[in-house]
Amino acid sequence: MSEPHGTQESATYDVVVLGAGPVGQNVADRARAAGLSVAVVERELVGGECSYWACIPSKALLRPVIAVADARRVDGARQAVTGRLDTDGVFARRNRYVADWDDSGQARRVKSIGADLYRGQGRLDGPRRVTVTRDDGVRRHLTARHAVAVATGSRPVLPDIPGIAEARPWTNRHGTDSGTVPARLAIVGGGGVGVEMATLWQGLGSQVTLLVRRRLLPRMEAFAGELVAHGLAEAGVDVRIGVRVTALRRPDPAGPVTLTVDDGSELEADEVLFATGRTPGTDDIGLDTVGLTPGSWLDVDTTCLVRGVNGDWLYALGDVNHRALLTHQGKYQARTAGDAIGARAAGLPLDDGPWGDHATTADQHAVPQVFFTDPEAGAVGLTAGQAERAGYRVRAVDLDFDAAQGANLYADGYQGHARLVVDLDREILLGVTFVGPGVSELLHSATVAVAGEVPLKRLRHAVACFPTVSEIWLFLLAACRREHEQTRTGS
């Protein structure tokens, strides 16, 4: 899709958005709903990392793997699963969901909300000004009356270790757009990308070795990483915890790669994937022209205004503000900031107090995250350790899922674990973690409970349907009540 018909060398809009991924599209949509004119600038594919190399393709690829694993847990169904996954069919499914990396449909969506799309590298050029440089060198100069919103995302970080350039490692992009299955795949990193890629490629037929320095899923409760590690090992992944890669060798570009780890041993693989962190996509967007450091994470207030910039005009949304590198959380920020931009433009008062219409309060208190491993791991809010470090008096209430009959009907011999983090002073939930097959569908109920600060006394009246996996709520809340009574009576 080309630029707006008749575009001149310069144009003025109420709002200019850098980045046309889900976050940029959401802030553009909310600004348009407020009656503001909007320009959206994108240097790659409209739809961003999430649509083509992250959330969408990874989940499209993972679903067949998990579906087969689920079937094998149900007697009568497992006997019907007699072969391996059809990798061509799995890759074709992924290709459909990413529209074969054709962004024309998403470009039409940008147009449908009434925004103008500019393709090229967008850079700030002083306050409220953006220069867009197309691939052919043509430049367009845009001025924003009210706001510039930075939604340029993040990209993977590769560690500085000997031989990494020679090894030509995969990142999340190669991990989700590859159309071939490596016989042996080494994955470095135990965060969300690492464990999902291990689940995916082992399921597709690779022999996967997962190399982790500390523990899996370090931002979640420790038991989440332990159960996911156990599930990966049962699936055939060689999980090695407490190791560090010190060097790589790949003398033949078409040959295998050799990894050296810190105990001096070596591992040979056909490909190596690094999932070792992200860096903000802010190195080439002109931050220096407004007094900020290129390549830095952008510090923002509750409305996502960037601190350290004069005037209420520069916003940073999604990965670039480093609050939560999750698409759904970035979209939440974008909706909130878009409403704040509209209110400021209209001269209306801001509702930016805790849980207000123009405040991203959930960024601090109720961020949900889920990893589509086998078993799945989902959490919202604070872990018990995080809550204690924040000064709360808390109690962790733990329960295995085998207490719920619905879980055992979902999967024979269902294995999973749940934890509630209870604020003892207010008798509300500060955090919830679930690990087990299908628990991603339980996470929103937990998010409502945490974000809504629903008192436990009231939450007990939310009746779970029988027989469903969500019955675990009944048993968790009963355990909370028993522990509360024991504490009260001193028994």
From TrEMBL:
Entries under Gene3D superfamilies matching the protein: 3.30.390.30, FAD/NAD(P)-binding domain
Residue ranges of every copy of the FAD/NAD(P)-binding domain listed in the record: 13-328
InterPro entries in UniProt: Class-I_Pyr_Nuc-Dis_Oxidored (IPR050151), FAD/NAD-bd_sf (IPR036188), FAD/NAD-binding_dom (IPR023753), FAD/NAD-linked_Rdtase_dimer_sf (IPR016156), Pyr_nuc-diS_OxRdtase (IPR001100), Pyr_nucl-diS_OxRdtase_dimer (IPR004099)
GO biological process: 2-oxoglutarate metabolic process
Disulfide-linked positions: 50-55
Superkingdom per UniProt: Bacteria
Cofactor: FAD
Spans through the membrane: none
Residues that bind FAD: 59, 122, 152-154, 319
GO MF, any single term: dihydrolipoyl dehydrogenase (NADH) activity
SUPFAM superfamilies tied to this protein: FAD/NAD(P)-binding domain, FAD/NAD-linked reductases, dimerisation (C-terminal) domain
Thylakoid found in the keyword field: no
Keyword NAD: yes
Residue span(s) of domain Pyridine nucleotide-disulphide oxidoreductase dimerisation: 367-472
Keywords noted in UniProt: FAD, Flavoprotein, NAD, Nucleotide-binding
Residues binding NAD(+), per UniProt: 189-196, 277
Cofactor note: Binds 1 FAD per subunit.
Family of the protein in this entry: Belongs to the class-I pyridine nucleotide-disulfide oxidoreductase family.
Listed PANTHER family: DIHYDROLIPOYL DEHYDROGENASE, MITOCHONDRIAL, DISULFIDE OXIDOREDUCTASE
Protein name: Pyridine nucleotide-disulfide oxidoreductase
